[in-house]
Structure formats: structure tokens, C-alpha cells
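ingest -> fold -> write
write: protein_1
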Amino acid sequence: MSLTKFDGLELPASADFHVHLRDGNMMKAVVPTVRQGGVNTVYVMPNLVPPLTSASDALAYKQRLREEDPNINYLMTLYLHEKITPAVVKGAKVQGVVGIKSYPAGVTTNSSSGVLDYEVFYPVFRAMEQCGMVLNLHGECPSDHGKNITILNAESSFLPTLKSLHAQFPKLKIVLEHCTTREAVEAVNECGPNVVGTITAHHLYLVVDDWADDPFCYCKPVAKWPSDREALIKAAVSGTGKFFFGSDSAPHPITAKKGGRGKTAAGVFTQPYCTQLVLGAFEQAIERKVITEDEVTEEILTGFLGGYGRKFYGITDSSNEKIVLWKGDEVIQESFTGEGVEVVPFRRGQSTWSVSWK
């Protein structure tokens, strides 16, 4: 079955609440692809080298992004680090920084400066709670074979920390980023309205078998079991507002993905096809009889692809830009290139929905 009922459908521009736009030549190659994916609002991750730990760092980065494409609303974040204090939080909020991203030390790209002990940051979380800044959590524990923790159960092992933080700071807005498991969906649903989760496009497609032999499907957190994928699909079309789109599009040079020089870089590049891939994933789920065609409505698409996230973050799209979905013969490019960089997108060479700007 296909979602042909949406061929020609007009929707508000999508908002992507988890993007990696990098810096330098990679930034110059990636930023122009944002609007290709039907997106005009992006929540920008701070894990550059060095990481963004001050409002001045974040605003300088925002200016570099705007020089590449000024027609995108860039929502900026800081990297949770020992340099972040309650005073930094309050000052950053005044200057327009929206959230602070927490990375457990060493679990993903550019996370070596990440968190080892969350209690150390309780004063920071209290300040964030008081001023309305959002805490974005990369929800994994570092691998610890003594505790039987690997990349396959790192997310589930983190969920008690999520619940503890919510109990300590019930008014703090928390996003469990890039959920990959049924347990994560259940944990977010069990928490109050200030806790939500983002879901990527690629996790709506992938299971463990896919990344085990394809580095271009390898990301952190890794895709899990078919039952986890189906739980994510159902969460995405639930209409509760507790889950919304965050692509976690993470470009890496093709040489870093092919391996042979140390560990394979973790990250899947979906930016040019964000909106399109979500439609394709829902179609596949209908074919697998995970959901029905009736469950994928215009209201659900509008909410998941931006409406729920905008409401949670308290932002409006003053541009009122619209996109049009259509089903043609478009095929995902084999790669995207820039000066000195080449990036391979997710599902390269496969057919895809198309998006145009109205």
C-alpha cells in the first residue's frame, strides 16, 4: 500500500529538532541541503571541536550558518560541560540560546568532553528549570562490560537516569533525543508533559541487521530490534504530542564511514530527504501491517513533522511557508560533495517521495 492520498498535499514547512550541521567545508556542503528536505527550522547540535560552551560561541556559529543560508530559523544550543554554570545558563537564555545538550562521555561523535556525573550539574539544571531552558539528553550509558552494558542496551540502561532527573526537576523541560527502543517510548510516556522524545527518520527504517554490515546505516544510538522499530512507528503516529521529528542527520566524510582507519564514524546523513524519508517509512510500516493507512492523517504529519515540536519549544513559524509532497520518480543521490568533502546519504540510489516549496 502507498500513501497516494498525500500526493500533492500541502503542509507547513517541517521543523527538524535535532541536526548536525558541522563547521568549515562540511557545513558549507550540508547547510544548503536543509531546505531540500522541506525544513525551515533546525535545532542545532553543539558538538563541534571545540564544543559550544558559551552564548558567544553559539551566536558566532549561528552567524556562520546564516551566511550559508539566511532563510532558515537556527535554534542554538550549548554543550553540557564543566564550563556551564547557572550564571552561564541565565546569560545564554537572555541571548536567545534555547537548550543545553548532554552527551555521556565518549558515546558518540565529539563527546569526549561529555558528562560523567549528572549530580554535579544539578545547580545548572535548577537554573535551566527556573529560566525555561530545555535539557536535551543523548540517552545512553557508556559501554561497561563489567555491568553488561553495550551499544545494544546502552539506551535502556540510561532510562533510570531520565526518570531520576524528571523526579528531581519536574518543571524542567527534557527531550530524550533519538529514541530507539520500546522501553524509551514507554519511559517518555510514563513521565509528565515536560518530558518528550524525538524520533529520527532512519530509526523508522533500520534494525540491527542493517547497520551490522553497512557503515552508512551505523549511528549512535544504534538501531535495535524489529519490535523497537515498530514501537517508534506507533509513537510517531500516536498524535499525543509526546514524540516529534528530530533527524539526527549526522554527516561524515565518506572516508570516515568506509573504515580502515580506526573506528567507523557513527552517523547517518538524511538532511536532504528528511520529510520525504518519513513518508516512505510510514508507507513501509503500512505494508508490514504495523499501522493502517487511516492512522497516517494530515494532522499526524503536520504534528510529527513540526507542530508538536514547535509547541513544546514555544516557537511559531512566522514565515508561514508551505511545502508540497508529491510522488514522482525521484531517486536519492549517491553522494553530496563540497570542497574537499563527500557525504553519502541514507538509502542512496533508492526511490523517494519528493518535496517542493510552494
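write: protein_2
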Amino acid sequence: MCDSCSRNAANPDQWVASVQVRQKVDHKRTFFYLEQVILKHSAASQAINIKQIHEGVDFFFASRSHALKFVDFLGNVVPVRGRHDKQLVSHDPKSNHYNYKFTFSVEICPVCKDDLICLPQKAAAAMGNIGPLVLCQRVSNSLLLLDPQSLRSVFVDATQYWRTPYKSLLTSRQLIEYVVLDVEPEHTIAGNGKFALAQVQVARVSDFGKNDLIFTSKTHLAHLLNPGDHALGYDLYGANLNDSELDKYKNLVLPDVVLVKKSYEEKRQKRRGKPRPWKLKNLPMEVDVVVKGRTDEDKRINDYEKFMDELEEDPELRANVALYRNAEYGEQSDIGSMTDGEEPPSIPIEELLADLQLEEDDGAAENVDENMEDI
């Protein structure tokens, strides 16, 4: 037998190199995206075991070269930094042969899509004095940061980020829903028509019937928002901000509201619990006992649902994801969703792949057996 077959016959969990992927955030949406990219490119096909633990995932390989190849793949997908170490398992002094176990630690950048960031003064100066309040619009092997007040944007690669690291001022878990009352476009367009500047008047949905607070702010969503629409944003008016980098800006005037994206939550509530016309595949992970729990499972389901909503809203995000047609999606659910006027973004059927499943036909198997008996 070859080395891999003999190793599997003896102990299938025997590994030589492990890659520990970590991200210090309070959600799993980055790992959901990373899982889909790994599946599409079969990057973990050489892994002998995958284990989900707190704050990350461990990948185990039977060869050091396979682990190095996987680490290089991660560096091309998300901004990472890493270190490696090795431990001596055994050695033969006569033949001068040493056996090591290798460990690669990979840390993913803690800044995620839709996060609000206060740039340090050194980093903002290096980017042409952008911001200092910026939104993270996209995460790939580099970060796309956008100033919603001026529509200036800049790409930050992993080397630039880890030279002057910074954390998010507010994360997507702190988004608040607003109602758009008025929109006054300023005819300033950037990003090939993806962003347009406007003055908007908004009010918090939770304030309806309680007070008459109305906020005025600039936004980059002029091409998407109309009076009466709902939008998700950060409430800087009522937020308790405790950030050392923000305190260094003495004369900085913070806006009351920073809108992030248009909200379709009210329309999505009508189809919650119904199957989607598409589905995703998952890696065969072994879940650690410490991770299992009712609270953690509810958070994971909520994060996974938000990740699927992001795939429907962002065509660039799902360009690296393989989507499959859902056989459980029937005509009845399709008819029910078409009766509610304007619908939230959905994925065109042309982008879906057919889920190929090979099943053995019992009748054909019996015919083959009969033919073999005749022979």
C-alpha cells in the first residue's frame, strides 16, 4: 500500500501538520464565507480532519507541503498573518532521521464587511488623510474602505493593515434600523456608479410613537434610498464610544447617523421559515464539545441566515461561492413570494448549479447480477 493508505489503515487521525485558523470577532460570517471558497476551489481536499473550535477552525494534514499550500491559499482569500512552529516527535540517531509535527497559526484580520472603523492618525495620513470614520465595504485579500462623507475609497492589503492594525469602532451586530424620510441627492457619484452622495433625513424605527427625533446626515446610498425605505445604520447619537484612537482627534465632529445599507428585513419576515430556491454545501467538520451549546447554536443559525442574506444582496460576494439548486423549493413557495409587490434581492436561477447526486438503480443492479450468473 502507499503511504496514505497504510496510514489510514493504521490510524486515520494521525496528522503531521495542522493549520489553526482564528479570527477574534463575535460572529462566524467570515468563516461561513471562507468555507464556501474552500469548497469551490477544493482547497481542503488533502485534509484528513477538520475540527471546529472556539474562535476558529483547525485543519489537519498528513503532509507539511499540503499545509503550506493551504496557508498560501488563505492568504489569497482574506487578509491574514501567521507564524509556525514544530515539535519533535521521534528521531533515529543512527540514520539521522527526525519526525516532526508542524503547526501553522493563521490569524484573520478582525475587520469585517459593514464595520465602522476609526482610522489611527498614522494610517489615515498614509491613505491620503481619508476619514477618519470609514466603512469596510469588501473583504478579500485586501480591505476596501469607504469614507461615506466624501465617497473616497482606498484598498488596504494585509501588509499595510498589520503594520498599523486597528479594530472596528462598531460592528454589524450594532446596526439599527431607520426609516428614510427625505433624500436630497448631491449628484456626486463614485465607484463606477455604485455610490452616490446625498443628504438624508432619517428616524429610528424604535422611536415611532415615542418621540420626534429626526437625524440629518450624509450617505453614500443616494442611488438606492427613497422616502419610505428602511436602512440599517450606526447610531452615533446614542452610542457610548470608548476608543483611544477616536479620542486623539480633538476637533472631530461625529455625524449622528452613518447609514450602511438598505434594509429588506420587513419584506424578508414574510418568507422566514420557507426554503430558499438555492442552498450551500458544507465542509465535513467535527464540532468540539466546548462549542456545542444552545446559545452558541442560536448565534450560529442567526449568523448563517445573515450570511445568506448578504449573498442575495451582493453579486460580488457570491462570485466566489458555488450555489446549488434546492430540490425542497417547490412551486407553492415561489407563488407565495410573488404576491407581495417589491421583493428583496434574490439570486437569478442562471447562477445556480445542479446538485449532482449519483444513485444506484436497484433494477439495473439486479439485471447486472442476472447477467453475471448467466456468464
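write: annotation protein_2
The two ends are 32 Å apart (CA to CA).
DSSP finds ten helices and 18 strands in the chain.
pipeline exit 0
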